[in-house]
From TrEMBL:
Family named by the database record: Belongs to the pirin family.
Domain Pirin C-terminal: 177-270
Protein's organism: Fodinicola feengrottensis
Matches recorded under Pfam families: Pirin, Pirin_C
Protein name per its UniProtKB record: Pirin family protein
Domain of life from the UniProt record: Bacteria
Pirin N-terminal domain sequence ranges: 27-123
CDD domains named among the record's database cross-references: cupin_pirin_C, cupin_pirin_N
SUPFAM superfamilies: RmlC-like cupins
Annotated InterPro entries: Pirin, Pirin_C_dom, Pirin_N_dom, RmlC-like_jellyroll, RmlC_Cupin_sf
Length: 302
């Protein structure tokens, strides 16, 4: 375990606009990682894009050391990967890809220009799974935790008596909360948690939080009070504080500069034994950017 102090907090983190070359003329709002908050549990990356009428066209690209969680709020996305998976993802459904030592995938809009609003998240794999074999799973039906004023779709992990079938390699929680009134939900005291408001204005743990703001809640809470005067939607993330400091660069999550540099070299030299081929794209792929001139170092919590 980390030496993270076990106490509840209420720290506010703003999103930042980041251009995304794979989506035509589109930028994303990046919430994780933050300089002072590189992870929440094993969650190490969170982008939100849209709502925008656009055509998504992300050519094959590689990953190592992580799981990708694609969560569309509006629109449909076609996922293809080097494992042979070919799946159309719709709202309230989960595609979960475990990269292990290496996998490649693409994501395209199912149709032409469509209204698209989605979340892309990464989960850092623990050291004993990061170099394992890749895998893909699809979950079209996810469980819901319900209480007065709230219905929560449990994406991964467990909330109350609702447990997701998705594979997690560390104790983890991801849930999409739909609020119609004030509500209280149970939490694990040993987890750290954070909440991202997707829609509406919400009071979380006594703090007024507007859309696009991440409220980091720390550890030590056994319940969370949420308030709204109308309807609102909140993404709740949680997990045991992640024990490792991570090196994150491009689409890779590792623990050293050498690990990242080796993965980049293998992608650039078309190492199909490591990353495979994604059917339907011919030779089209996203090349790796050059490594920075400085040595990549792990991110540390401030």
């Amino acid at each position: 375990m980390t030496n993270l102090e076990e106490r509840p907090v209420a720290e506010r983190y703003e999103t930042r606009e980041v251009p995304l070359g794979g989506v035509r003329g589109m930028s994303v709002r990046r919430t994780l990682p933050q300089r002072a908050l590189p992870t929440v549990g094993a969650w190490c990356f969170l982008d939100q894009f849209g709502p925008q009428r656009t055509q998504m066209r992300v050519l094959p690209h590689p990953h190592i050391g992580l799981q990708t969680v694609t969560w569309p709020l509006t629109g449909e996305i076609r996922h293809r990967d080097s494992l042979g998976s070919d799946a159309v993802l719709r709202p309230s459904q989960l595609n979960l890809m475990t990269s292990g030592r290496g996998v490649a995938h693409s994501e395209f809009s199912l149709t032409g220009d469509q209204l698209l609003h989605a979340l892309q998240l990464w989960v850092a794999l623990p050291a004993d799974r990061a170099a394992g074999q890749p895998a893909f799973e699809r979950h079209p039906d996810l469980p819901a935790y319900e209480t007065k004023g709230l219905v929560a779709t449990v994406i991964i992990g467990a909330l109350g008596d609702a447990t997701s079938p998705a594979t997690a390699y560390t104790p983890l929680l991801g849930a999409d909360l739909a609020l119609t009134a004030s509500a209280t939900i149970p939490l694990r005291k040993d987890f750290e948690h954070a909440a991202l408001v997707l829609d509406g204005f919400v009071t979380i743990a006594g703090q007024s939080v507007e859309p696009g703001l991440l409220l980091y809640l720390g550890t030590g809470r056994d319940e969370l009070r949420l308030g709204t005067d109308g309807t609102a939607r909140v993404l709740l993330l949680g997990g045991e504080p992640f024990p490792d400091n991570l090196v994150m660069w491009w689409n890779f999550v590792g623990r050293s500069h050498q690990e990242i540099a080796a993965a980049r070299d293998d992608w650039e030299t078309h190492d199909h034994d490591r990353f495979g081929l994604v059917a339907g794209h011919g030779s089209d792929r996203i090349p790796a950017p050059p490594l920075p001139a400085v040595r990549l170092t792990p991110r540390h919590r401030a």
